[in-house]
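Look over what follows to help learners.
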Amino acid sequence: MAKRGVLVLVALVLAATCLAAVHGAGECGATPPDRMALKLAPCASAAQNPNSAPSTACCSAVHNIGKQSPQCLCAVMLSKTAKISGIKPEVAITIPKRCNLVDRPVGYKCGGYTLP
């Protein structure tokens, strides 16, 4: 399983280096969601398997991204970088709840998904 996590991290880094830089303010401020998605590397297995407990590092990353805005968290979880790395949006969207984040935006619509 650790080997898979390393491969996901490598895929995230490669995807981020291939992306063109975006200037201006978007869902995550000046940082494009695809670049912000790199911060989800500790969530690799938790974002692919709903039975995998998110690590402390994963919960911290999700909390920090979510503090920016629910729009940012949503954009990151649905980003091309996240998809390329094998993150399943229907599983990733459950991480804030699985981390017991009390300030998560319950009921927020994220594409075709709703934050539990």
About this structure: Confidence is low (pLDDT under 50) at residues 6-23. The longest strand covers residues 109-110. The chain is about 45% helix and 5% strand. The first helix runs from residue 2 to 18.
